[in-house]
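re: that complex we talked abt at group meeting.

here r the seqs, copy pasted straight from the sheet so there may be weird spacing, ignore it
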Amino acid sequence: MNYQAILDEIYEEIQPELDKGKVADYIPALAAVEKGQFAMSLTLGDGSVYSVGEASKRFSIQSISKVFTFTLALEHYSRELYKRVGVEPSGNPFNSLVQLEYEQGIPRNPFINAGALVVTDALISHYKDEYNTLEAILGFIRRLTENPEIGFDAEVARSEMEHGDRNLSLAHLMKSFGNFENDVHATVMTYFKHCAVEMSTEELSRAFLYLAFGGTDPISGTAFISASKAKRINAVMLTCGHYDASGEFAYHVGLPAKSGVGGGIAAVVPGKMSIAVWSPALNRYGNSHAGTLALEKFTTKTGLSIF
Amino acid sequence: MNYQAILDEIYEEIQPELDKGKVADYIPALAAVEKGQFAMSLTLGDGSVYSVGEASKRFSIQSISKVFTFTLALEHYSRELYKRVGVEPSGNPFNSLVQLEYEQGIPRNPFINAGALVVTDALISHYKDEYNTLEAILGFIRRLTENPEIGFDAEVARSEMEHGDRNLSLAHLMKSFGNFENDVHATVMTYFKHCAVEMSTEELSRAFLYLAFGGTDPISGTAFISASKAKRINAVMLTCGHYDASGEFAYHVGLPAKSGVGGGIAAVVPGKMSIAVWSPALNRYGNSHAGTLALEKFTTKTGLSIF
Amino acid sequence: MNYQAILDEIYEEIQPELDKGKVADYIPALAAVEKGQFAMSLTLGDGSVYSVGEASKRFSIQSISKVFTFTLALEHYSRELYKRVGVEPSGNPFNSLVQLEYEQGIPRNPFINAGALVVTDALISHYKDEYNTLEAILGFIRRLTENPEIGFDAEVARSEMEHGDRNLSLAHLMKSFGNFENDVHATVMTYFKHCAVEMSTEELSRAFLYLAFGGTDPISGTAFISASKAKRINAVMLTCGHYDASGEFAYHVGLPAKSGVGGGIAAVVPGKMSIAVWSPALNRYGNSHAGTLALEKFTTKTGLSIF
Amino acid sequence: MNYQAILDEIYEEIQPELDKGKVADYIPALAAVEKGQFAMSLTLGDGSVYSVGEASKRFSIQSISKVFTFTLALEHYSRELYKRVGVEPSGNPFNSLVQLEYEQGIPRNPFINAGALVVTDALISHYKDEYNTLEAILGFIRRLTENPEIGFDAEVARSEMEHGDRNLSLAHLMKSFGNFENDVHATVMTYFKHCAVEMSTEELSRAFLYLAFGGTDPISGTAFISASKAKRINAVMLTCGHYDASGEFAYHVGLPAKSGVGGGIAAVVPGKMSIAVWSPALNRYGNSHAGTLALEKFTTKTGLSIF
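got the structure back, here u go
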């Protein structure tokens, strides 16, 4: 398939959509990002990369980082992790406390905020403190991308913390149910830091390649996790990767993927490639408006849905 | 792959699991079904069929019928259908009224009871009355299976109705929100009748083949729906096919599938085959205990997960 | 105290409020009632009656009838009744199914719709059929008022039934939890009939006198219920008498009272009198706007709050 | 009436109940309190006091302190306070986040934890910092009782804070909705300190006298609040004073009252007296088991219910 031609086509078709939707505005650092930007990159198993738009421009990956932390936690805890967090879609907006209260402090899945906080808490317990934890998360992303330059924007993290009451509320609630082990403030801060990691679509599509190839990066040959775990992470991305619009996304796009409020989405075509797309304006569910459409166009044009 | 050998292996391994779980007992007709029974059938695109266990014994397909009615409604209403029912996982037990009340009578998806009732209601509006509707549903299943003998157990349907207060409650609630068009009693009765359709795993695996092959039965060559709709039905099965355990099922099995409280599960391997399994004892989520495990073994042994 | 002067004062002051709010419009028979009407009557223990406005004009008492049915059910079942219905405020709009589902089909109190349906169901079980039940309810109201003419508007009841899906939904839901004994349709119809009883404020203030005087009508001397039960009914009116605005009503008015969507409110000043007020336009909680204000003015002017 | 004789009678009758129920055990300081203790005091408008049991022994008043803070906040903010907290019963357990989330961070009433936290926050805003606030609260209680010795147990407050995640969660949640003005940690700590005030039943019955006499202490003659506000505080105690058992309490006891998990209950007989009772073992709703029964016996024996 001529992937470059397909990307070029999508790039042209998507232009009228770039100004639709609304950039995340709950923190100044994200609100300042200009609408109208777009990038899309594919990385294939043989290492070839196809891109359109601002594919080397870094953006805040936000919730996409939850895939990396979930991978690490699954590696360290295996089945034990599921005593603390489930793998079911939540059926409620991504930051809802309702379900958490009815379900005794066990979040539905690792991709809603509560679940990702528990995952970060579990990593801090494993790595003993929050500095080591952040090191481990960054180290993992750097190994995935073979790029030691990847870091996070401390200003974004600090700004998130200033508006972090909802997440602090979630963490204290889970602690009241006994499902939180470390200091609430330090853990939430670590969570905001890994959400503030900055990557480009080129980097992100490379980083997700291990999930398309059974846990092993086909370029470097590094085995990050088992094939069975890779498949399961893909399954959780498909059912829970897009907050309250996961069903819609599976329905329209048909690929395991994870979105972030920074406007990024990283997707996986099992056995073939990984795809990253970025456009900062969000639809009403908090997912990139143009990014979602671009991926839908991609699977329609290529037939590469998993269904 | 030697599918027969794989099925034989699964059959042997599954024996200790057949008595675990609990047969659905809310109506006498289902409660009377003996535990310990098991059947599994694959139908490939070339028409070859592999089976183990009581593969020609019919059982009550129950909620699996919702896939057939959703297909028909999607065919007749297309996008219009989504004004009345969503495609999001529900995050609540399958018969919950809570979400329905908060969401103004629009059920989350066509596979929870409320959603399937709306789909049946939409079909009755299309076919003008409930007799025609049931005819159309049965006709569709008979064409899918090329078997004019398939019917429903009127005794099961009548017995469901006697314990049908929860579904009557759901239907009246949706009617109070303006999302129900026909007589509540007649519509719920029609719903129970199509849930009471009886099929064997051989028949069911044949019936689902259109979803594995882009909407067209590869054996008869009949095009039932468009490829795009077939993919989308698969997506909804993956995210919503197993009540409150849809995430778990995607995580462990990794195939689009729909289960019923009669103990059946029908699954799809896109582009390759469809699979039906039956074992009447259910796990705590209302899905066949041994059936779920058998499918998990199948994807583990064959690597045929969609992820 | 010069009650007539106080009523006259209230009558004058309330004029600008009579057109505020909105007449109940979910059924044509209620929607047709003209705004701007007002009546208020006090009946004292010595039989003296003071009125202003259209005090002999009958209106649909609607939910006020729930006080009569609760009294009868308490008389027949005593503590046994509390296995089926509680006495706690609901904290949710009056027709919510949410709490009912979480609390296994046991309504919070006898004055929300679900609770009143259970009470009607319990009365039908006691009186053996719905005709006898309606006879008993009407007979009770006629004895309370010493007025054999009081009846219900069959047209209103029929019209309610045509829009009765929410109540049918509640009844079927309770039946699915085992908390409903009689035919759903017939019971809901009986419920609508007793809600369609028509009384004037003169009649209503007389009818509630037994609750102000320890269960015994001080005029006729008839003992209807024990003093202890009368006090308890007053307590339930205070905490639960006004749907989701019961706290507000207790806060501003400070009297046990029950309102109906027909615009009536009946209140009790223990040991002194009962008061009925009517004005059809409702506030956003479904209680008479001018009626609530008139009662607030009354307790402010007289100091006759229970607090 | 011979109040001493009535108290003596209650004291004797209540003995078999003193060991029933369970002392609050979520913090060590409260868990260490011995079951089996009991005290009850009445203070009349003329200053006469009647007591039984350990009426001069101080205990942790806990949530009873919410009446004092609500009084102060109502005095400083008047109607403005109701933009931040309602006066409706909650219909959910006392620390539920569910309602708070659905209702945009506005607590139902000032006596559930969320509401009392908002009240404390409002007081800190008024008094500018938390030290002044605590001074003001203690000063108010000391003036009410004419007793400068009343203070709080810092150890109890510190211990509460160590188990304070649920309250921290509530406070952060309200802050995320914009309904919290001061530092969460400092405010919650202040809340725990005023909950840790220690009083005997003698002191508590004296302290509540202003609510029985239109806002003015009839002994000292000090006017603390207006008659209208006093009545309204009584109304809120009646509808919301006992968590999820407020309806039951109104039903069985029939007096405005507030309970605390320390086992205390303070009640008001408007125009006559105030009553305090203490027995540390709690019923399943978190209210003193023997204390509730003792008050029920009191209103039964004296007929002094407000209904």
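couple things i noticed - Residues 3-62+197-302 of chain C form a domain with the Beta-lactamase fold (CATH 3.40.710.10). The mean pLDDT of chain C is 96.
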